């Protein structure tokens, strides 16, 4: 994909706070229809990148383009962008419906007619209750609803499953997948790495403000060279075999030919891959 078609383009972007580079020479592009996970430890620069994409802070070097424009400029671009922060804050006296109406007006959208959106995030029966009566998970749902106002072309989610129960986490990732199928770009910043597997088609690993790995999960597994773990029962005894990605087909055929049973194969997880790249950087 070319950068001309990209939703977001970072080209050697850097950001400096108090004389310290929190983002350094960062380059990548995000494209329509992609669900991308941005992973890194606390202080790695993930939220700073999102703030720059929102136009809340500006790069100190390099070029950043969001929806074909300078971030934060133009109502059209703001209307096409959705954002869910890590900690959502709402006026406690407002009802859920009044809250969505307020954010809709900020985007230049109709203030009413959001029943389908309340239903989508599981707040249909609480829409007319005051936000002060909402649990943390319900406020997170309301935050997701405001992020989805206007069917955004770019959705930025910072720790989106914080406070959500397992059922709503599945629903959230279902919504994310639907948006991507409709052509939206979704950027997920999260510490819940295992949770991201199967939901993000691409992973960008950030360490100290620099990109240290970027690719699909399979590409990162191959790049890391971590072995898969195969458990089975052979000749009545449990066996554990570590094998590379290229060895898997031949080893599996051999074990089946020898009558192995209870075969389970565990590929390196995103946690394993992330730890590998951090250790490589430290070395």
CATH fold node name of the largest domain: Rossmann fold
Head-to-tail CA distance between termini: 33 Å
Unreliable segments of 5+ consecutive residues: none
- Label the CATH architecture of the largest domain: 3-Layer(aba) Sandwich
Shape: globular
Helix content: 25-40%
Biggest β-sheet: count, sense, barrel?
Answer: 6 strands, mixed
| Radius of gyration, whole Å | 22 Å
CATH superfamily of the largest domain: P-loop containing nucleotide triphosphate hydrolases
**Mean pLDDT across every amino acid position:** 89
What is the number of domains? 3
The total of helices stands at 10
Overview of the structural elements:
With 283 residues, the chain is α/β, with parallel strands linked by helices. It has three domains: 3-80 and 152-220, Rossmann fold (3-Layer(aba) Sandwich); 92-148, no CATH class; 225-282, no CATH class. Helix content is 33%, strand content 28%. The chain is built from ten helices and twelve strands. It has helices at residues 46-54, 75-79, 96-106, 115-120, 136-147, 166-181, 193-196, 217-224, 248-257, 270-282, and strands at 8-17, 20-30, 35-39, 61-66, 81-84, 154-158, 185-189, 202-207, 210-215, 228-234, 237-243, 261-266. The chain has a six-stranded mixed β-sheet with strand order 5-6-7-3-8-9, with helices on both faces. A three-stranded antiparallel β-sheet has the order 2-1-4, covered by helices on one side. Strands 11-10-12 form a three-stranded antiparallel β-sheet, covered by helices on one side. Helix 8 crosses helix 10 (270-282). It starts with 7 loop residues before the first strand and ends with a helix. Keywords: ATP-binding, Nucleotide-binding, Transport. InterPro entries: AAA+_ATPase, ABC_transporter-like_ATP-bd, ABC_transporter-like_CS, ABC_Transporter_VariousFunc, P-loop_NTPase. Pfam families: ABC_tran (PF00005). Residues 8-233 form the ABC transporter domain.
């Amino acid at each position: 994909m070319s950068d001309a078609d990209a939703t977001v383009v970072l080209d050697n972007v850097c950001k400096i706070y108090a004389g310290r580079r929190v983002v350094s020479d960062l380059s990548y592009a995000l494209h329509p229809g992609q669900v991308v996970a941005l992973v890194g430890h606390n202080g790695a620069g993930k939220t700073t990148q999102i703030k720059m994409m929102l136009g809340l802070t500006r790069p100190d070097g390099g070029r950043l383009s969001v929806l074909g424009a300078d971030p934060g400029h133009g109502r059209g671009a703001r209307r096409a962008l959705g954002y869910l922060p890590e900690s959502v804050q709402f006026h406690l006296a407002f009802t859920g419906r009044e809250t969505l109406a307020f954010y809709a007006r900020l985007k230049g959208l109709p203030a009413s007619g959001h029943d389908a959106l309340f239903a989508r995030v599981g707040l249909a029966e609480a829409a007319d209750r005051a936000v002060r009566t909402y649990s943390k998970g319900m406020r997170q749902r309301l935050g997701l609803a405001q992020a989805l106002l206007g069917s955004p072309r770019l959705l930025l989610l910072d720790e989106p499953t914080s406070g959500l129960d397992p059922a709503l986490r599945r629903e959230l990732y279902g919504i994310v997948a639907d948006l991507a199928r409709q052509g939206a770009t979704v950027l997920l910043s999260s510490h819940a790495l295992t949770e991201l597997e199967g939901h993000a088609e691409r992973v960008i690993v950030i360490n100290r403000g620099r990109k240290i790995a970027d690719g699909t999960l399979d590409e990162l597994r191959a790049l890391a060279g971590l072995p898969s773990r195969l458990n089975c029962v052979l000749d009545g005894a449990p066996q554990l075999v570590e094998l590379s990605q290229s060895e898997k087909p031949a080893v599996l055929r051999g074990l089946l030919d020898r009558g192995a049973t209870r075969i389970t194969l565990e590929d390196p997880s995103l946690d394993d891959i992330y730890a590998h790249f951090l250790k490589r950087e430290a070395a």
